[in-house]
Amino acid sequence: MNAESEDMWQNIFEYFQKDINNYLQAIGQHFEISLFALGVAAVMGIPFGILSTRNRRWYQWVTAWFGTLRIVPSLAVLIMLIPIVGTGIIPAVIALVLLGLPPIILNTALGFHTIPEFMIETAMAMGMSKTQSFWKVKMPLAAPFILTGIKTAMIEIIASATLAAYVGGGGVGNIIFTGLGLNRADLLLIGGITVAIISMLANLIMLGLERCFFRYKYLNLDI
Question: Is 76 exposed, middle or buried (0-12, 13-18, 19+ CB in 10 A)?
Answer without folding.
Answer: exposed
